[in-house]
């Protein structure tokens, strides 16, 4: 079960069915979905509902909604890798770094396995979040983007518990 986490400005909480509308709106924005590998386009309300249903099933994946007090502004998950997105109107405020710091702190409280993540080449904002957390480059690959069916060059990164504790 995904725990609720608090930061200075955010509540990180499990997703709720009522998050379908703001998720749909955010993921229709080209400035958000352009950088996401697994998001189909067009992304509609049913896609958001299906995602939310998948969040309620028992799995190893943890999903948090970023809520600054007025509802969903983004999402962060840990599954096979750390992934996240934020509404464009909230970019540049340090919110994702704040949220990711809380999530990674929680993760390494209970786990010793490294976290993996990555960013599409050219996504400097996501690169900066991961570097601030202490992630280091491992290799570049090119997963297939769901929206286009085309490979997208992606810098893969890793964060070990020892790197996290040493920062």
From TrEMBL:
SUPFAM superfamilies xrefs: Acyl-CoA N-acyltransferases (Nat)
Name recorded for this polypeptide: Protein N-acetyltransferase, RimJ/RimL family
Pfam families in the cross-refs: Acetyltransf_3 (PF13302)
Stretches assigned to the N-acetyltransferase domain: 9-136
Single GO term (MF): acyltransferase activity, transferring groups other than amino-acyl groups
UniProt keywords, alphabetically: Transferase
UniProt xrefs under InterPro entries: Acyl_CoA_acyltransferase (IPR016181), GNAT_dom (IPR000182), N-acetyltransferase (IPR051531)
